[in-house]
Design brief:
Elements (H helix, E strand, L loop, with lengths): L11 H16 L14 H15 L4 E5 L2 H14 L3 E4 L6 H10 L4 E5 L14 E4 L6 H8 L12 E4 L6 H11 L1 H6 L13 H8 L1
Parallel strand pairs: 1-3, 1-4, 2-3, 4-5
Helix pairs in contact: 6-8
């Protein structure tokens, strides 16, 4: 990948695909190689611990991820644990019905893909928010978190970002912190190669 950065525009697709693989590995290696499907997932273990506390305390939570296959793993685990949930991603056919089920129901958890949850939602029923993977554009994360901050919210909202230490996720968070103002001014729809990112930035993610 480092060798491809000399011509970043020509190689942008290959670089982005490779960075995506590294991000998936930080979530669970089974997303990249099915041979590792049976490995435990520390991130899901941690999430479930938090969600039990949320549910036991009478609270409700939104859980976001960019990767729908990882959300599927979370969904399977919640089913095994007996934790009730609703689920929404870009392929959900009856979006309004699912949203209404959460708003009017008692499920303590709403699993939402980051893009599907970035607009058109008012979910003040939830007062906890969990982000399972960092997004290239922090503004997109902010839009997701804002689902809980709409008019009618009268409680403090707790936001958790679950970051795998010593992985590319660590580097993405550090990069976002350095370039927050640039990211905020660039609407790149998740594109890692908007004008806010340089070849040096990408080198920093890999070294």
């Amino acid at each position: 990948m480092l060798g491809l950065l000399d011509d970043i525009q020509r190689n942008r697709f290959t670089i982005l695909k490779s960075l995506t693989v590294l991000r998936q590995m930080a979530l669970h290696p089974g997303l990249v190689d099915p041979a590792h499907n049976t490995l435990a997932c520390a991130k899901i273990d941690t999430l479930v611990e938090h969600l039990r506390d949320v549910a036991d305390g009478g609270h409700r939570a939104l859980v976001f991820s960019q990767f729908t296959r990882f959300l599927g793993r979370v969904r399977d685990r919640l089913g095994t644990e007996g934790i009730e949930y609703c689920y929404l991603d870009g392929r959900t056919r009856n979006r309004p019905k699912v949203i209404q089920q959460f708003k009017e129901g008692t499920a303590p958890v709403f699993l939402i893909s980051l893009k599907a949850g970035g607009f058109g939602l008012n979910l003040t029923e939830a007062d906890y928010c969990f982000l399972l993977d960092p997004w290239w554009n922090p503004a997109t994360e902010t839009q997701a978190i804002d689902r809980t901050h709409r008019i009618g919210q009268n409680r403090n909202v707790m936001v958790y970002r679950l970051i795998a230490r010593d992985t590319i996720e660590d580097k993405v968070i550090a990069l976002n912190a350095r370039k927050a103002k640039l990211f905020a001014s660039v609407i790149d729809d998740g594109n890692a190669f908007g004008s806010a990112l340089t070849a040096d930035d990408i080198r920093g993610l890999l070294t």
